[in-house]
Every structure is written in C-alpha cells, then in structure tokens.
Amino acid sequence: MAERRAPPLPSLSRSVGIVLRTAHLGAMALLVGGAWFGVPAVELRPALVASGLSGAALLVSEASHSRHWVYQLRGVFVLVHMGLLALAPRLGTGALLAALVVGAVGSHLSKPVRAWSLRHGAVVD
Asked: Which of 1, 60, 55 is nearest to 23 (CA)?
C-alpha cells in the first residue's frame, strides 16, 4: 500500500500573496457593496483605506515577481484597475464595479497569459 503524505505547504511568498489577495478582496467587497447600497462616504473610509493599503501591498508583491511586470498583461490589468479606481469619485459606483471586474479577470488569467509581455510580444518571466 502506498505511503500517505501530507500535501506540500505553500512557500512563504505564496502564502503572503494569498493573505494579501484575500484582504484586498474583502476590503473591495465592503467598499463596492457599500457604495452600491448608498452607504455614506465617511462610513466607507475604513474599507477605502484597507482596500488601498492591501492593494498597494499586493502590487509590491506582484511586481516583485518579474522586472517586466509593468508591461506584462498582469501589470496592465493592475494599471487599468487602478485607473478605474482613480475615476470612481467622478464616475461613481460603475467605475468601482468595472475595477472589481478588471481585478477579478486579471487575477484569474492563466500564468502564460498573465506573463505575456506587450513589449516583447511573447511570454517573459
């Protein structure tokens, strides 16, 4: 009979990424949901701050994976995500929803697609 072994644990880097992404998703959910349901801006401030801080930490974590990050599709999706968030005060909840969709799509693309470089026209790490 085959010996049973526990599955390998994720690396520290991977674990940090999971924690940051989870915190960011939670903060964004509170922010977008609150905006959708008309919660006053002052009451959304903690979610906005948590979203910004977790997003910045996630950006640093993601950018550390490759020096080509900013012109790979993963970087482009993050820049579009941030641009939509910057437009949210003027465009309202629609910009927040669009940012949520862009962030979700960008983070769920396959690794080869995420690593596609617009500069090189190929996958680069």
From this structure: 55
